[in-house]
Specification:
Layout lengths: L1 H12 L3 H37 L32 E4 L15 H11 L1 H18 L13 E4 L5
């Protein structure tokens, strides 16, 4: 069937079948290269925008780039008797909330309490795998480090 279509196309364009197939392949290759270049340019723009927001007020903070980022940590306190649990997440693990929006922070804490920290990492890895496979979200660091520490007072 493919050969018949190529033959008909060649006859209409006054070309040999080989010339028609070669021409169609070259056109397809050019389109793919153009699409890839556009996607790469879009990815570079997103990465540049993210880098411009790094370690800036209103942006996000990464301590490995600037130890002063620790002064921007979100902190709080509660009386020990009211403490349900405590968690520390690397920026890679925190992707479960932002940018992936798989859960809000209260749900993340509940997941850690009921299913353990590995569930957070599993969900992040699942999205990273999908993102890499589809190229749907340009990301310069896939997979990113993902570390979670969680503890509950009195739980062994």
């Amino acid at each position: 069937m493919m050969r018949q279509l190529a033959s008909e196309l060649a006859q209409r364009q006054g070309q040999s079948v080989a010339e028609a197939v070669r021409s169609a392949l070259l056109q397809a290759k050019e389109k793919l290269e153009h699409d890839r270049a556009a996607r790469d340019a879009q990815a570079r723009a997103v990465i540049d925008e993210l880098r411009a927001r790094r370690n800036r007020s209103g942006g996000y903070w990464i301590a490995k780039d600037d130890p002063q980022a620790a002064t921007q940590a979100v902190t709080g306190s509660v009386p020990l008797g009211q403490l349900i649990g405590a968690a520390l997440l690397s920026n890679g693990a925190s992707r479960v909330v932002d940018p992936y929006r798989l859960a809000e922070w209260p749900a993340v804490l509940e997941l850690m309490r009921t299913m353990g920290p590995n569930e957070i990492i599993r969900r992040v890895r699942e999205v990273e795998t999908l993102t890499q496979a589809t190229g749907s979200v340009p990301d310069s660091r896939l997979p990113d480090d993902a570390t979670v520490a969680y503890c509950e007072p009195g739980r062994t």
